[in-house]
């Protein structure tokens, strides 16, 4: 889950539509252009999240789009603005995720040949899904930087039109239709919180809201591993650390050239949150709202949870930008959240090395309502002495408040618990 590292080659900037500024008129034109082709997703209040955050939280469920994210809006708007000649030649995009699926799906709907370049390490399920939506998938390079190197040759030899994931006014205008729907439903929003990668979504959202008399504040949010837009616009002092981010949809190493201009001019703030906060937000949205979000989609809630004073008492619109998350990753996130909540704990116990000792320990944990996940039993390396054994037990509890009674019962039974940690 590395970063999307797109440079700014001439081919990218050649795809920009003009040099003038967009306005809310362009966003409304995009909405009219693809009316009936993209459904309006629900925009609903969350009573429980509102109580938890002390803000009035409204959720825009873009994770319910057919391709699982908002990305299809910008892709479709760009496709509809192409000339018949450009459509006939076909389009190309570089992506291993939501942008790929958005381009592939709508290109197929319009009969436009689509080529998607992906790094060779892209999970097979993503490549196969993109092929199933009708695109030709080319695997090139080990990462996005190397995959990007294939673009100039393909653009020249095949005469294809590039659909950039964010740094294109046509894409920006299409993404901004999300905010039109939110503000048409709830014109009295105080703030809209937007996940930010390259900046296409937040640029469109800011444009859609900019000319309204009762304009809400527009606040972006990025992972502290990839705060590229916050860094580029002077809202964050540290560098991009990079690495493996849970919010892979916004793990962009460099902010867009065009989008940076919109963010600097129209966006009120860009907040940066930790990976743990994003994990918690994913778990809460699943547990409370029964909706599945990827890391980028949950980033807005992570920002509200991490900055409670900034949002308390405000009417806040959160864009759940996508829901495409790997099953194994989701399982790991939910388990880690149980650790944070104290419902999965690790007990370290010194036992006398006698027959039946481990059985008695496990039986007592069970009597106190603990469900044992794993047991590690060591007589040699970590035991206190030759007549004892060290046991590590992972225990799942129905409620974190059950831990203290469990520890008291183990003590009463003569077990020496050296540590009880949720880590």
How is the secondary structure organized here?
Elements: H1 10-14, H2 24-33, E1 43-45, H3 47-53, E2 56-61, H4 71-81, H5 84-89, E3 91-94, H6 98-110, E4 114-118, H7 124-132, E5 136-139, H8 144-148, H9 151-158, E6 161-162, H10 169-175, H11 177-185, E7 191-195, H12 200-210, E8 217-223, H13 228-232, H14 257-266, E9 269-273, H15 275-289, H16 295-306, H17 308-311, E10 315-320, H18 327-341, E11 344-352, H19 357-367, E12 371-378, E13 388-396, H20 403-412, E14 416-421
Parallel strand pairs: 2-10, 3-4, 3-6, 4-5, 7-8, 7-10, 8-9
Antiparallel strand pairs: 1-2, 11-13, 11-14, 12-13
Helix pairs in contact: 2-10, 2-12, 4-6, 4-10, 10-12, 11-12, 12-14, 15-16, 15-18
Instruction: Specify the CATH architecture of the largest domain.
Output: 3-Layer(aba) Sandwich
Strand order of the largest sheet: 1-2-10-7-8-9
- SSE class: alpha/beta
The percent range for strand residues is 15-25%
What's the number of domains? Answer: 3
Identify low-pLDDT runs: 1-18
How much helix, percentage-wise, in residues? 40-55%
The residue-averaged pLDDT reads 90
Described by the principal axes of the CA atoms, the overall outline is elongated
Number of continuous helical runs? 20
- Give the CATH level 1 class of the largest domain: Alpha Beta
| Biggest β-sheet strands, sense, barrel | 6 strands, mixed
How far the N terminus sits from the C terminus, by CA atoms, comes to 23 Å
Task: Count every beta strand, where a strand is a DSSP E run of 2 or more residues.
Answer: 14
The CATH topology of the largest domain is what?
A: Rossmann fold
Compute the gyration radius: what is it? Answer: 25 Å
């Amino acid at each position: 889950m590395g970063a999307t590292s797109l440079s700014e080659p001439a081919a990218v900037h050649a795809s920009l539509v003009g040099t003038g500024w967009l306005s809310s008129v362009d966003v409304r034109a995009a909405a009219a252009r693809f009316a009936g082709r993209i459904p309006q997703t629900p925009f609903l209040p969350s009573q429980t999240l509102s109580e938890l955050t002390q803000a009035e939280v409204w959720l825009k469920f873009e994770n319910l789009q057919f391709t699982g994210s908002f990305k299809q809006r910008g892709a479709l708007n760009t496709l509809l603005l192409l000339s018949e000649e450009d459509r006939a030649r076909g389009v190309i995009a570089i992506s291993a995720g939501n942008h790929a699926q958005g381009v592939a799906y709508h290109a197929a709907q319009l009969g436009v040949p689509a080529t998607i370049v992906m790094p060779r390490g892209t999970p097979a399920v993503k490549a196969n899904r993109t092929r199933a939506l009708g695109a030709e998938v080319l695997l090139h390079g080990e990462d996005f930087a190397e995959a990007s190197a294939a673009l100039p040759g393909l653009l020249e030899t095949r005469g294809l039109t590039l659909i950039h994931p964010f740094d294109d006014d046509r894409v920006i205008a299409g993404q901004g239709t999300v905010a039109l729907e939110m503000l048409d439903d709830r014109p009295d929003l105080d703030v809209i919180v937007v996940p930010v990668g390259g900046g296409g979504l937040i640029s469109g959202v800011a444009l859609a809201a900019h000319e309204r008399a009762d304009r809400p504040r527009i606040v972006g949010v990025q992972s502290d591993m990839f705060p590229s837009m916050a860094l580029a616009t002077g809202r964050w002092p540290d560098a991009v650390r990079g690495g493996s981010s849970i919010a892979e949809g916004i793990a962009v190493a460099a902010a867009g050239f065009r989008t940076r201009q919109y963010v600097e001019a129209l966006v009120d703030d860009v907040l940066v949150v930790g990976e743990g906060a994003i994990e918690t937000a994913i778990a809460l949205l699943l547990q409370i709202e029964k909706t599945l979000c990827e890391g980028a989609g949950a980033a807005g809630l992570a920002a509200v949870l991490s900055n409670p004073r900034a949002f308390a008492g405000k009417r806040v619109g959160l864009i759940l930008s996508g829901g495409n998350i790997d099953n194994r990753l989701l399982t790991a996130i939910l388990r880690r959240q149980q650790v944070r909540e104290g419902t999965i704990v690790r007990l370290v116990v010194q036992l006398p090395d006698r027959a039946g000792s481990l059985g008695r320990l496990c039986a007592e944990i069970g009597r106190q309502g603990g469900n044992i996940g794993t047991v590690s039993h060591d007589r040699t390396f970590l035991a206190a002495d030759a007549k004892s054994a060290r046991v590590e037990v992972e225990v799942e509890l129905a409620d974190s408040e059950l831990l203290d009674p469990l520890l008291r019962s183990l003590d009463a039974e003569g077990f020496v618990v050296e540590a009880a940690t949720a880590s």
